[in-house]
């Protein structure tokens, strides 16, 4: 990832959805781990505590003309400010859901250009009746009321 305004470069490599490494511009490498709750650790130290709002009152329903059953909605917030290391770690808190990091960096750049200090993310989760497939529709906003949409992404994941 490159910060277009400062020229700083940070490399984030994920081995799987929970483990990876962050290489800073000075060559320092930090081990990254994301636990089941979404907490992000760098070299074993808690860097970002999961701050996820979940809609537990939602009743799973079958969507019309679809094989997807609605499960729940998560809301995440991450900063678009600060150094690239902190932004990369912020991305890790929701990255397994949204897929390739390059698209997320572009979304953060777009939010920055709009003057947003925080990126607000809403993720709607769906499943198939046999629980074999899950779909994540992610919506990225520049405001806390979730009205100024930057982009929507969708990812389907096969569980087995």
Structure, described:
With 160 residues, the chain is of the alpha+beta class. It has one domain. It is 16% helix and 40% strand. The protein contains 3 helices and 10 strands, in the order βββββββαααβββ. The chain has helices at 84-92, 95-98, 101-113; strands spanning 11-14, 19-23, 29-34, 40-42, 45-48, 53-54, 69-79, 118-127, 133-141, 149-158. The protein has a 5-stranded antiparallel β-sheet with strand order 1-2-3-4-5, covered by helices on one side. It has a 5-stranded antiparallel β-sheet with strand order 6-7-8-9-10, covered by helices on one side. A hairpin with a 4-residue loop joins strand 1 and strand 2. The radius of gyration is 16 Å and the shape is globular. It starts with 10 loop residues before the first strand and ends with a strand.
Please render the helix and strand layout as text.
Elements: E1 11-14, E2 19-23, E3 29-34, E4 40-42, E5 45-48, E6 53-54, E7 69-79, H1 84-92, H2 95-98, H3 101-113, E8 118-127, E9 133-141, E10 149-158
Antiparallel strand pairs: 1-2, 2-3, 3-4, 4-5, 6-7, 7-8, 8-9, 9-10
Largest sheet: 5 strands, antiparallel
Please indicate the percent range of residues in DSSP E strands (runs of 2 or more): 35-45%
Total count of helical runs of at least 4 residues: 3
Oligomeric state of shown chains: single chain
Whole-number total of structural domains: 1
How many beta-strand elements? 10
Distance linking N and C termini: 31 Å
Strand numbers in spatial order across the main sheet = 1-2-3-4-5
| SSE order, one letter for each helix or strand | EEEEEEEHHHEEE
